[in-house]
């Protein structure tokens, strides 16, 4: 497995992103493979805080997406962890698309946040692929999590229940000659995204070699019963049907891709019963960009209403 690493200078002076970088190494996924992959993450707030908030991004963003949410969550006294998935942000980027699999992403994230960082007592906030990965971790390691906030995400089981908007996005991601993460974010928001913010989303990807993960991610979503990840996701959904800790849906009002997918969470996950599920108004698919402060307030209110001790 060959990987590239985005030069540090590309992350200098990004608007609203004045955070210290942190890194851990994880195995590449093949026994004895060396050197390891380096994963970048933000680690804000007190390290010994009683509450940890894990913010997981999706496709084709990176931890920059959560820049508006990190300060208020940390100021409230919580430890805030925001990893860049392998292939994104400041994390290493394998250059062969076949090196990216759903199973490997779950394992890389598990090893980074659990084995290396030791995160526990977690409130998960997940959007897009952050939900596809984060909810697998919740299902497989429920003892690590005290709450979940699902925001514009889903958990496909390979049963064909994926809407047309997703397939349009999937086709676009494979056919567009110039894959710009910033332009994609701009197209999937309600508010105007300034040019310097668009450029910041593009910062991790100097050329096509750095985009293998972003190109491959849409093809990893389980859309048929024989998908390699379908069986594991079905087993995970069975576990989620037993997850009785607080589970909140905070979707936006203008997301064509995940519109309506919160219904299944509300109906089938025990911890979602009786929760004040909310809608972030005036926000598109990337609701952290359109309404990050509003979503942070929802998370803080949810944590305050559901004490763990």
Summarize the structure.
With 309 residues, the protein is an alpha/beta fold. The chain has ten helices and ten strands.
Descriptors for this entry?
two-stranded antiparallel sheet; 309 residues; single chain; alpha/beta; 10 strands; eight-stranded mixed β-sheet; Rossmann fold
Query: What radius of gyration results from the CA coordinates?
Result: 18 Å
Q: N-to-C SSE series?
A: EEEEHEEHEHEHHHHHEHEH
**Residue ranges: pLDDT <50 for 5 or more in a row?**
none
Strand content: 15-25%
Specify the CATH homologous superfamily.
Alpha/Beta hydrolase fold, catalytic domain
* Tally of distinct domains: 1
Strand order of the largest sheet: 2-3-5-4-7-8-9-10
Q: Note the total helix count.
A: 10
Number of strands: 10
- Proportion in helices: 25-40%
Largest sheet report: 8 strands, mixed
CATH topology group: Rossmann fold
CA-CA gap between termini: 45 Å
CATH architectural arrangement: 3-Layer(aba) Sandwich
């Amino acid at each position: 497995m060959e990987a590239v690493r985005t030069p540090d200078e590309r992350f200098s002076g990004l608007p609203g992103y004045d955070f210290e970088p942190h890194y851990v190494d994880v195995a590449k996924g093949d026994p004895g493979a060396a050197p390891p992959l380096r994963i970048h993450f933000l680690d804000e707030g007190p390290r010994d805080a009683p509450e940890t908030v894990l913010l997981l991004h999706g496709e084709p963003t990176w931890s920059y997406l959560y820049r508006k949410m990190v300060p208020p969550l940390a100021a409230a006294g919580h430890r805030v962890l925001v990893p860049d998935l392998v292939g994104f942000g400041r994390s290493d980027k394998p250059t062969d698309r076949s090196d990216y699999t759903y199973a490997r992403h779950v394992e890389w994230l598990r090893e980074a946040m659990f084995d290396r960082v030791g995160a526990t007592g977690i409130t998960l906030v997940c959007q897009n692929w952050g939900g596809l990965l984060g909810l697998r971790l919740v299902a497989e390691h429920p003892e690590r999590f005290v709450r979940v906030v699902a925001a514009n995400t889903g958990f496909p089981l390979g049963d064909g229940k994926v809407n047309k908007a997703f397939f349009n996005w999937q086709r676009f991601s494979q056919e567009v000659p110039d894959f710009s993460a910033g332009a994609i974010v701009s197209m999937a928001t309600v508010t105007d995204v300034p040019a310097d913010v668009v450029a910041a989303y593009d910062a991790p990807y100097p050329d096509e070699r750095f985009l293998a993960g972003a190109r491959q991610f849409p093809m990893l979503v389980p859309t048929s019963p024989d998908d390699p990840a379908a069986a594991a996701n079905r087993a995970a959904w069975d576990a989620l049907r037993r997850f009785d800790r607080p589970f909140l849906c905070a979707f936006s009002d203008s997301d064509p891709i995940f519109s309506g997918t919160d219904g299944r969470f509300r109906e089938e996950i025990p911890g979602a019963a009786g929760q004040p599920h909310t809608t972030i108004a005036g926000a598109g698919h990337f609701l952290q960009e359109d309404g990050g402060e509003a979503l942070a307030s929802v998370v803080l209110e949810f944590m305050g209403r559901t004490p763990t001790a």
